[in-house]
From TrEMBL:
Every ABC transporter domain range: 4-235
Coiled-coil region: none
Record key words, sorted: ATP-binding, Cell membrane, Membrane, Nucleotide-binding, Transport
GO molecular function terms attached to this record: ABC-type transporter activity; ATP binding; ATP hydrolysis activity
Keyword flag Cell membrane: yes
GO annotations of cellular component type: ATP-binding cassette (ABC) transporter complex, substrate-binding subunit-containing
GO biological process: carbohydrate transport
Protein name, entry field: Glycerol-3-phosphate ABC transporter ATP-binding protein
Domain of life from the UniProt record: Bacteria
Keyword RNA-binding: no
Amino acid sequence: MAAISLQQVRKFYDNGFHAVRDFSLDIGDGEFVVFVGPSGCGKSTTLRMIAGLEDISDGTLRIGGTVVNDLQPKERDIAMVFQSYALYPHMTVRQNMGFALKLDGVPKAAVAQRVDEAARMLQLDHLLERRPKELSGGQRQRVALGRAIVRKPQAFLMDEPLSNLDAKLRVEMRASILKLHRQLGVTTVYVTHDQVEAMTMGDRIVVMKGGEIQQVASPMELYERPVNVFVGGFIGSPAMSFLDGELRDGCVVGDGYALRLPAAMADRVAAGLAMNGGRAVKLGLRPEILSLDRAAGEPLAAVVDVVEPLGAETIVTLRVGGGTVVARLGGHARLEPEQALTLYLDTARTHVFDAATEANIG
Ligand code: ATP
């Protein structure tokens, strides 16, 4: 097992494209870290640099304290799991899992023992003599994981390993990977574009956009204290809603609404805005802070647009002036499109972003 440290790592591709900018991060020994962000944000490139599959244009990469910038992938003692399982079609599961060990000259009996051990962990024992084409997608991905485990590497690097699986299997495999991580305690870096996968799996999550780290935090911290509009909108489902407004006399005022902030929060927002001399803000509202219960706080007049009953809860999209908010209401909320109503919310639980810098100043 090993810590992984990236200091001001950058990647310029040959065409001059700057795919990763100044990426600095210390991943602890045994930690499970998830890189998440929209397509093209540089998460795979960063993972591939750690693996040694891409050159590092600038900066320093250490694995287990050793600078590995110029080491070949096989000298880095890491195992990679890809979205495409990359299994050898003509080999059995047992042969696929043991192949790398055999190449390394590990004695036959030891290979068999390590493959059996990994197969037990992944519930593949009964499939060891089958070939990949005789397996389901989930079983193939288990074999790919098994192949990584048997090598007992210092770290696992996983690039969207569950993307080819259907939704139900993805949830099952998420649990399997986390269980493996608990059992083995091997440092793991996991790339996904799916924020739910990131939230449910990571000890820490690295949110990326445009080749840059936006925020590094635990799942709850990201959810509760997003540093900017991008992180606020990216993490959470249904997504955070944003209303444009201005700070005026302790209230956020916008098209069709005025909400009083708690005094300390209004002071923070005023101080944050003063740094840039603006007054415009974006108010960020999580769906669960909106309620039909008067006791919930400040009133917000809205008109129902779309109602999505999901059984235990109802997701409602509403218009507030020219803006839109999404509320997560109880399963029994009976609402009709175009119905005018009043929502209530605790403004202490809103997020206030500087509209100019998009930084969270609330
Ligand atoms: P995805 O989820 O779509 O895989 P990603 O966040 O993993 O996205 P990367 O694959 O790291 O993104 O790519 C980052 C950026 O670098 C993208 O804009 C991509 O087009 C660009 N890129 C990737 N490989 C190359 C290359 N070989 N040459 C030039 N540009 C590249």
